[in-house]
Amino acid sequence: MITEINVRFVAFISSLAQAGANLPLDYLEMNLNPDNFSHVYKHYEFPKGTIFLRDVDEKPVVMNEKDLLDMDPRHA
Q1: Is residue 8 part of a domain?
Q2: Which of helix, strand or coil describes residue 57?
Q3: Which end of the chain is less crowded, N or C, counting CB atoms within 10 A of the terminal residue's CB?
Q4: In a domain, 6, yes or no
């Protein structure tokens, strides 16, 4: 019986998951359902220009750099 899952991923991990690389989910699936987990190497690639913005006081943002450059400076 599992009583605690105490995996320590970096704080940035939610941004990677938002972009499609959900490493905590991969970890859980591998350990909780190993017979159905594909152990084939996964190389996550993000669309060209994907950037990850993180700030102490704000939620992380995943976006394309062209969208950042096109933003109205009053909303940046």
Answers
A1: no
A2: coil
A3: N
A4: no
